[in-house]
Amino acid sequence: MEKQKRHRRTAEERLADLEAKRQQMEARMREQMSKIEDQKRRLQENPKLKRERDAQRRMLVDRISRLANGWEATQILAAVAEVYEKVNGDEAKMNALHQRGEALMQELKPRRGRRPRNSI
Question: How far apart are alpha carbons 95 and 101 in whole angstroms?
């Protein structure tokens, strides 16, 4: 049985290992810093604004479900992506979409109170 010779790493190999280790540590630190920044942002966030944004999100989901009843989430997402590609930053199209969206938000607004009786 032959004895295997010990492989001594060259200075370049050791430098490459150290550089890889440094990059891994930097990536972990960036990830941790982003988590800390997210926590900081959440703590500084105004609770009233957060409630309003959550309410808007709920209203949007409710109205989308009224408009596209029976659609799956993937179909809705694909439709949004298709429109986004067609608009492609065109200001006139964006304004038209904004106005149409405002009209639909009002039209799909849930009705409050009792329904009136049908008059004879």
Answer: 10
